[in-house]
Amino acid sequence: MVDHLLGIQGLSKSEIYRYLDTAHSFVEVSERDIKKVPTLRGKTIVNIFFEPSTRTLASFDIAGKRLSADTINVSIGSSSVKKGETLLDTVRTLESMKPDVLVMRHSESGAPHFAARCLSNTSVVNAGDGQHEHPTQALLDLLTMRQHFKGRGIEGLKIGYVGDVRHSRVARSSVWAHLALGNEVRLIGPKTLVPEDFARGTFGPGMVQVFDQLEPGLEGLDVVVALRMQLERQEEHFVPNLDEYSREYCISERLLSKVAPNSIVIHPGPMNRGTEITSDVADGPRSLIRQQVTNGVAVRMAVLYLLARSVQSLEEVAHG
Amino acid sequence: MVDHLLGIQGLSKSEIYRYLDTAHSFVEVSERDIKKVPTLRGKTIVNIFFEPSTRTLASFDIAGKRLSADTINVSIGSSSVKKGETLLDTVRTLESMKPDVLVMRHSESGAPHFAARCLSNTSVVNAGDGQHEHPTQALLDLLTMRQHFKGRGIEGLKIGYVGDVRHSRVARSSVWAHLALGNEVRLIGPKTLVPEDFARGTFGPGMVQVFDQLEPGLEGLDVVVALRMQLERQEEHFVPNLDEYSREYCISERLLSKVAPNSIVIHPGPMNRGTEITSDVADGPRSLIRQQVTNGVAVRMAVLYLLARSVQSLEEVAHG
Amino acid sequence: MVDHLLGIQGLSKSEIYRYLDTAHSFVEVSERDIKKVPTLRGKTIVNIFFEPSTRTLASFDIAGKRLSADTINVSIGSSSVKKGETLLDTVRTLESMKPDVLVMRHSESGAPHFAARCLSNTSVVNAGDGQHEHPTQALLDLLTMRQHFKGRGIEGLKIGYVGDVRHSRVARSSVWAHLALGNEVRLIGPKTLVPEDFARGTFGPGMVQVFDQLEPGLEGLDVVVALRMQLERQEEHFVPNLDEYSREYCISERLLSKVAPNSIVIHPGPMNRGTEITSDVADGPRSLIRQQVTNGVAVRMAVLYLLARSVQSLEEVAHG
Question: CA-CA 20 to 30 A from A290: which of B44, C106, C155, C217?
Answer without folding.
Answer: C106
